[in-house]
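May I ask for a protein sequence together with how it folds?
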Amino acid sequence: MQMDGSKHMGTGAADAPFYLAQGDECDIFTAAYDNNLPVLLKGPTGCGKTRFVAHMAAKLGRPLYTVACHDDLAAADLIGRYLLKGGETVWVDGPLTRAVREGAICYLDEVVEARKDVTVVLHPLTDDRRILPIDRTGEELEAMPGFMLVASYNPGYQNILKTLKPSTRQRFISLEFDFPAPELEARVVSQESGLPLERCKPLIRLAGKLRGLKGQDLEEGVSTRLVVYAATLIAQGMPTERAILAAMVEPLTDDEDIKRGLLDLTTAVFG
């Protein structure tokens, strides 16, 4: 089974992925890193949590292992397992173990989606011990300097079966994320897409109205990521309404009546 987790090398502040701070989140993350504190990011899908972690890892000059958590992700996928290689059985570290050995940042995206045994593994790494016991090899790894554990989840998707226990939540400091204020979001979308700022502003107004439908006609509001996609298509010459349909309407619903309603809303915003 292939290990889940991708590694990126921190490159320094000058080459950090673009991220426009909304408040003091960068300062808090840096203080947490300096003091070996784990961080939990809370916020809706597509609001910039993953980009924020990539930005901070580059700014701090640390390697970053990102793990997209899912229903089948088990503790062994993070820690490692014995695999057959060339007729021999060898131990292969998982992304969490590699981060602990290297002093890297390990980011568990949507951690509540993982199996319950994952959070048990995290506990000894989120207190002053900063250790990772590996039962299969008998090792007890102490985290190297620079190791940091970061996790995220979307509170809007939580249900009785997918929540973080208080005993886990209280091991992290938490940062709450939301979609940026309209003027900031327009700057982000313009920067990421290449579409002039003034042409991004109507897209942001439309996104705000679509987010207002969450819990009514829509299960989830439109993400900043999707707005960037729409702006990118428009910047490449696609007609605005077609770009919005492809990037901001179709991803939100399969219901034809709701689609027509969203397109009517688009016409009302754009005229």
The chain has two domains: 6-176, 182-270. The chain has a mean pLDDT of 91.
